[in-house]
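Design job #97: recover the sequence.
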């Protein structure tokens, strides 16, 4: 069952990035006070470079934008070079005119994670909810750090990472060895993500093909967290040909 998910297949990862950047810059042009949701990982890196390029070329200002990120490693400070706060600063925030105080990333060193997570949910609500949120997908179908089994109505909370996610993040792109990867994270929930008015999920490469096929064509099930987007009213998957290769025609 394909649900409502719209699928756009691009010729390669560069085209995926251009399409994603086009959506974000258009969103901000139409509503300068947009609330945007961002993701980390290798997949969105090219999109962030494109957003910065396009915003500059088309003179679209992000000065009134508010942003929220999906997740953060538990135990890492924002200035740790593997923290998602650091990633966002380096990959996007320092290249556009978004105001640092309007960018929200969960605090991986919060003393009381429950209070941190509740405050994050409340802040999203207090600014009117997220207009457009970009997501990646794990090889196991996770979205943010919502690993298989995460409930459809889950909210921001402290979670444990699966071995598959720890392995994927210690293949040298980020951490060098699995022992360095934090075992827990603060993550927005599937319910938090589903509340966004518009979602775009990016996937590139053959390693994502199984997860994408299950998310789009398989059952609506917490076993494949991304499948829980099937009944979202405005969700688009932007894929390269490899990631799309196992979809039903
Ligand atoms: P990746 O991660 O973009 O580094 O593949 C995606 C994810 O785990 O959500």
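Job complete. Output follows.
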């Amino acid at each position: 069952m394909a649900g409502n998910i719209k699928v756009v297949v691009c010729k390669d990862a560069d085209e995926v990035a251009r399409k994603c950047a086009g959506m974000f810059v258009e969103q901000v042009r139409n509503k300068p006070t947009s609330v945007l949701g961002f993701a980390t990982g290798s997949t969105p890196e090219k999109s962030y470079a494109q957003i910065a390029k396009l915003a500059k070329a088309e003179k679209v200002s992000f000065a009134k934008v508010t942003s929220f990120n999906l997740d953060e490693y538990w135990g890492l400070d924002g200035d740790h070079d593997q923290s998602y706060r650091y990633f966002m600063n380096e990959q996007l925030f320092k290249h556009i005119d978004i105001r640092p105080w309007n960018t929200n990333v969960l605090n991986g060193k919060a003393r009381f994670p429950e209070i941190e997570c509740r405050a994050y949910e409340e802040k999203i609500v207090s600014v009117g909810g997220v207009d457009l949120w970009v997501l990646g997908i794990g090889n196991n179908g996770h979205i943010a750090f919502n690993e298989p089994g995460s409930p459809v109505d889950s909210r921001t909370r402290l979670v444990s990472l699966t071995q598959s996610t720890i392995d994927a993040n210690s293949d040298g792109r980020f951490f060098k060895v699995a022992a360095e990867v934090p075992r827990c994270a603060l993550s927005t929930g599937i319910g938090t993500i589903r509340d966004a008015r518009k979602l775009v999920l990016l996937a590139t490469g053959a390693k994502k093909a199984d997860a994408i096929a299950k998310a789009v064509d398989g059952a609506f099930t917490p076993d494949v967290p991304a499948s829980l987007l099937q009944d979202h009213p405005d969700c688009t998957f932007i894929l390269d040909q490899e990631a799309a290769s196992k979809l039903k025609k």
